[in-house]
Here is the input.
Amino acid sequence: MADTTTAYRGWVAPLCWAAVALEGFDLVVLGVVLPSLLKEPSWGLTASGASAISAIGLVGVMVGALAAGPLADRLGRRRAMVWTVVAFSVVTLLCAFATGPLMFGALRFLAGLGLGGVLPVALAMVAESGGAGRSGRATTVLMTGYHAGAVLTALLGRLLIEPYGWQILFVLGALPAVVLVPLLALRLPDTAPAAPAPDARETRNPMAQLVRGGFLGSSIAFWVASFMGLLLVYGLNTWLPVIMLAAGYELTNALLQLLVLNVGAVLGLLVAGRVADRIGMRRAAIVWFTTAALFLALLSIRLPGAAVYVGVLLAGVFVFSSQVIVYAYVGRHYPAHARASALGAASGIGRLGAISGPLIAGSLVAAGIAYPWGFYVFAAVALAGAVAIVAVRRRDAADDREIEPSAPSAPPAG
Here is the structure.
């Protein structure tokens, strides 16, 4: 049994990566199809209506993340992963048949419930299967799947929307589940529901662990850090080109800078996990947030020539992976029976930052002060993330300690 379970653990990283890539595809697809939706003559969709659809989808993601963590801790990781992928894939397919903004918005909310559950469950599984000294690296590599899915969405949108219509992207976003779901069910190892703890109340309600036994202060600190991290990610991805236009750069350069920012994100993810495994999650998170603040503040200066691209690239390296190191740190800080709940809470509450980021940056744009004040605000947010990590209570060197895997059970024979 143990040998079989160990063999199946080799499937965890690629299958969770594929699930997160589908999440990246689905969460970015709205931005890709939005220009087409605004032109639908029978929909009458306005810019404010489109913003409402985007926000309600993110609310669904938040609710899904908060709910999926406790379910995964109580029912097992594999079962939670299978059902979240099934749920968002089915609803994503239904989005292709939406007849108006109201129906489309409702479906995006329902899809968000499933989407929100994917990340905390995947993070818990890869952290537990990463092996000694590699959990940080496993977490950051997992998150490259999100960017791969996002890039694929943009490429397919460019190639297929004009000849086939926006609906084709939602069909293609759902089809991989036909292959992925059976593989998840048959090849993922599972974790049995947590064994009874000394305090049985903790086992019945994993979320209680986040506020008991000295964890309340750390939980609040992690939630603040996650809020700040996702505020940066979504605020910059939404408004960077507009801010750079206000700084006097040409449109083509501003769009290229957004691409460079995301290239930096992937590079940062590949580097950050290795660094965190070497120097500890706490130290790495503080360094990453602080350095992100430095480069964001640097962008408030109009840099000449290629220097601006170097600055944007380095900002991307540190901004995006700061948030992922927070997830890795959360995975190490809490005991196994509450790990997915802790990750779900950090991801779910962080989504409030994802909603706030574009709103804050947009208000600065509307006020005509996005440059340079947008970068000052983003730098302050990054510093707040660093301060939040400093406030996390040390728990027996939990920032450097390897996590202990949950008790595994072999997947069904297949």
Summary: The domain at 2-190 is CATH 1.20.1250.20 (Growth Hormone; Chain: A;). The chain has two domains: 2-190, 207-390. Residues 1-5, 199-203, 400-414 have pLDDT under 50 and may be disordered.
